[in-house]
Write a sequence for this structure.
């Protein structure tokens, strides 16, 4: 069991000191993840990657709302998801005008490559579409989130959501078809 996994276990058991031990071990990787997320944002964005790291970290290790971490990879997948949610919340709060009723198509096949450069509007559209997919099939939506926002492979995402590699590939194929049907040509 890695140091990170051991400290995550301490946090789960309510050890308030453990979160202070965890930060130095994961900070560099969280900064890289945040920098990657922020690279797609506009240059004058008021939220900086350091603030994004700290906000996500606080959400992840809040002892009062204990989470269970299966592994180091699970923690970083959750960190990527927390950062995504923070950026979406930020984009929503900063939206000055209502978006068009038109949906801007974002192809899921290219999302992994483009997820770093999505505009705020595209990010909101993607989140809306993922929420719609989640209502239809939560596990498939989670797989898409892990692939797109955490950068996990199909095999890595399969481990996090607890399905076989074969099932995960079936989920991914379904997601590709679903997004193709949902987004206008």
């Amino acid at each position: 069991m890695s140091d990170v996994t051991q400290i995550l276990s301490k946090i789960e058991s309510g050890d308030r000191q453990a979160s202070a031990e965890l930060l130095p071990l994961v900070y560099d990787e969280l900064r890289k993840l945040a920098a990657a997320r922020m690279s797609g944002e506009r240059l004058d964005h008021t939220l900086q990657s350091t603030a994004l790291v700290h906000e996500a970290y606080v959400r992840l290790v809040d002892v009062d709302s204990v989470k269970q971490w299966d592994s180091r990879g699970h923690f970083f997948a959750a960190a990527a998801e927390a950062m995504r949610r923070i950026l979406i919340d930020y984009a929503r709060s900063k939206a000055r005008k209502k978006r068009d009723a038109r949906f801007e198509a974002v192809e899921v096949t290219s999302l992994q490559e483009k997820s770093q450069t999505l505009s705020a509007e595209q990010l909101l559209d993607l989140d809306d579409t993922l929420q719609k997919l989640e209502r239809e099939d939560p596990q498939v939506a989670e797989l898409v989130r892990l692939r797109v926002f955490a950068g996990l492979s199909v095999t890595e995402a399969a481990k996090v959501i607890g399905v076989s590699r074969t099932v995960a590939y079936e989920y991914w194929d379904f997601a590709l078809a679903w997004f193709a049907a949902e987004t206008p040509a």
